[in-house]
Write a structure and sequence with these properties.
heterodimer, A: 74 residues, alpha+beta, three-stranded antiparallel sheet, elongated, B: 142 residues, mainly beta, BH3618-like, 1 helix, 5% helix, 37% strand
Chain lengths: 74, 142
């Protein structure tokens, strides 16, 4: 993995279209600005991990459909 | 063709019912083909893998959970699904159903979007904080 040191307001370019700017640095947090084409999805990595977890959890659950039908009809 | 299903035994399906998730569904990237099944008793929509009997998501249309559900699809997703107009898209929220059914939650943050014209599907991850991954389906004290 490429690791670059950057100061506040300094940026990194990835290809021609993506720019990542360090906008704020505090003790245990950095704020990052991202300029990228609209068709590119940008999101926090843990969000995708959460979606995976939710999906796995959902698919693994054992459900008694008859019992569920009874509850839903109430 | 016949497929084995998690909840309904062996089911006969038509090839043109198969929904292709080109990228799979997060957590299950190897399974790309699903079919939608419905149950007479329940209003749920079942998203069943045609290759893995035990892989089935129970879903509901988000509009059945929150009346005014709406979101902007990313251009990337519109391209991938080859969506031509919003009316062609069907949306489903994956449910998490615990033993205590009343604590059921719906993932409104990452809806399944299907282009009903070509049966391509994707799980979209929405921007912003409008919707939760664990939205309570039932209000308290039901």
């Amino acid at each position: 993995m490429l690791v670059l040191a950057r100061k506040k307001d300094e940026a990194i370019l990835i290809g021609d279209e993506i720019e990542i700017i360090v906008t704020e640095i505090s003790e245990d947090k950095v704020k990052i600005g991202i300029k990228a084409p609209k068709h590119m999805k940008v999101f926090r990595k843990e969000l995708l991990e959460q979606v995976k977890e939710e999906n796995i959890h959902s698919a693994e659950s054992k459900i008694d459909l008859e019992a569920l039908a009874k509850v839903m009809k109430k | 063709m016949n497929i084995k299903t998690k909840f309904f035994g062996e089911v006969k399906i038509d090839e043109n019912q198969i929904i292709s998730f080109v990228e799979g569904i997060p957590g299950f990237p190897e399974y790309k083909k699903y079919v939608i099944l419905n149950d007479e008793e329940l209003d749920f929509t079942f998203l069943q893998s045609i290759d893995e009997k035990d892989l089935c998501f129970i879903t509901l249309p988000p509009a059945a959970i929150v009346g005014d559900y709406s979101f902007d699809l990313s251009d990337e997703t519109v391209e991938k699904l080859e969506l031509e107009k919003p009316e062609d898209a069907a949306t489903l929220a994956i449910l998490n159903i615990p033993e205590d059914f009343k604590k059921m939650t719906a993932n409104l943050k990452a809806p399944i979007v299907i282009n009903t014209k070509n049966n391509k599907g994707i799980q979209e991850l929405l921007d912003g904080d409008n919707y939760s991954m664990k939205h309570q389906v039932f209000k308290e004290d039901v």
